[in-house]
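Good morning,

Attaching, inline, the backbone tokens for the sequence recovery test we're adding to the shared suite. The designed sequence is right after.
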């Protein structure tokens, strides 16, 4: 060994006062920033401010069966639109027979979010189990409840011209 090298010494990070993790006290107050988008409201705040909700008209034209997946709809662009204007983080969807489902999305509830919430309740039901299996649209009645939409249903979907062959084949078998 050469004489000009100093002997190696072991350094313990705990002794020198350094820590790889921050002290627990500082961490306690930290909260993750909300992942909600700007311009998206809490429905309760809108009620306090008295802001009116407008429901997307596209929901009335969907002719969607409650027990089929929203992914099967032809109108993919309509699914991306906000269900209400101004957009909200969550909204309750109330059925006339008393069932209530909640659609949630921190970036604003879209038509697809609402249909997904409804589909989750009805996906295991057969067509003949549902009295009114087709979505007719939503209604907002601020006198009854500011924070929920009433779901309207109908027996049959209006015939649409752009049906796929798969649907026509199903109709022939009935």
């Amino acid at each position: 060994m050469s004489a000009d090298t100093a002997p190696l010494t072991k350094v313990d990070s705990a002794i020198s006062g350094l820590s790889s993790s921050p002290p627990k006290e500082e961490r306690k107050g930290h909260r993750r920033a909300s992942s909600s988008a700007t311009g998206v409201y809490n429905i309760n705040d809108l009620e306090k401010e008295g802001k009116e909700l407008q429901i997307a008209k596209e929901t009335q034209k969907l002719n969607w069966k409650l027990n089929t997946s929203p992914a099967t709809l032809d109108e993919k662009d309509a699914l991306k639109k906000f269900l209400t204007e101004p957009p909200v983080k969550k909204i309750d969807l109330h059925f006339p027979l008393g069932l209530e489902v909640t659609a949630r999305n921190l970036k604003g509830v879209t038509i697809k979010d609402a249909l997904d919430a409804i589909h989750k309740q009805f996906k295991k039901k057969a067509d003949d189990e549902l009295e009114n299996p087709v979505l007719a649209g939503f209604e907002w009645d601020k006198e009854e409840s500011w924070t929920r939409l009433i779901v309207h249903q109908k027996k049959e979907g209006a015939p649409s011209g752009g049906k796929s062959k798969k649907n026509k084949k199903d109709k022939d078998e009935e």
